[in-house]
Structure formats: structure tokens, C-alpha cells
Design goal:
Elements (H helix, E strand, L loop, with lengths): L2 E5 L2 E3 L5 E8 L8 E6 L6 E6 L6 E3 L7 E6 L4 E6 L8 E11 L2 E6 L3 E5 L2
Parallel strand pairs: 2-11
Antiparallel strand pairs: 1-3, 3-8, 4-5, 4-9, 5-6, 7-8, 9-10, 9-11
Length: 120
């Protein structure tokens, strides 16, 4: 059974930094691409960053480019999101995500989310 567990959220001042972690279990972590999403209150879920299974390719949403870094440690079944120069508009619940395609059907898997609040 696929499980994703995020951690590392909290309250941080503008300009500060946080590192989020996403621990995966119940699947072969190293064989799956992963993504970080976020959702602020009253807004749609937004793609923050993507990392290919071997970490050879990454992609970032325009709003976080140059400030956030996605990485993974396949030996630890863990993905990370280093967030620097945080802004109040980064306040949201952050989710990790992966997906599986089988028999022409796509199944999405989500963690429970970790809340990030950027405020002075």
C-alpha cells in the first residue's frame, strides 16, 4: 500500500528557509517520478516542483524558481524541498505526490500535507 508522509512544515518569517521532507513506503521509490504541490486557502492546488526518478531532471513552477530546490535520496526513500527566501504568498499546505500508470489507468497518490505559514 502506497504511503507518502510529509514533514517539516511550520511558521517562518519572510525571507526565512524551511526544508520539507516526503517519506515514501509501499512502493519502489526509486522507480517513480515525484512532485511537490501546494494549496493555499481558497486557491487551486499548484504544482511547485517535479523530480524525475533518478533526479536527472527537475522542473519548477514559475513562482518558486530560483528560491526552491527539489531533491531526493532514493536510498532513504525520501524527497525534499528546500525553500529559501520565503514570502507570505508561499503560505500553503504542501503535498507530495506520485502516480502510477497501469492498464491505461493513472492512479495518483498523495500525502496528508504539511502546513507552511510565512508571516512576521
Amino acid at each position: 500500500q502506497v504511503a507518502l508522509v510529509e514533514s517539516g512544515g511550520g511558521l517562518v518569517q519572510p525571507g526565512g528557509s524551511l526544508i520539507l521532507s516526503c517519506s515514501g513506503s509501499g512502493f519502489t521509490f526509486s522507480k517513480y517520478d515525484m512532485r511537490w504541490y501546494r494549496q493555499a486557502t481558497g486557491k487551486e492546488r499548484e504544482l511547485v516542483a517535479y523530480i524525475e526518478k533518478s533526479a536527472n531532471h527537475t522542473h519548477y513552477g514559475d513562482s518558486v524558481k530560483g528560491r526552491f530546490t527539489i531533491s531526493r535520496d532514493n536510498a532513504k526513500n525520501t524527497m525534499y524541498l528546500q525553500m529559501n527566501s520565503l514570502k507570505p504568498e508561499d503560505t500553503a499546505t504542501y503535498y507530495c505526490n506520485t502516480w502510477r500508470i497501469s492498464g491505461g489507468r493513472t492512479s495518483e497518490f498523495w500525502g496528508q500535507g504539511t502546513q507552511v505559514i510565512v508571516s512576521s
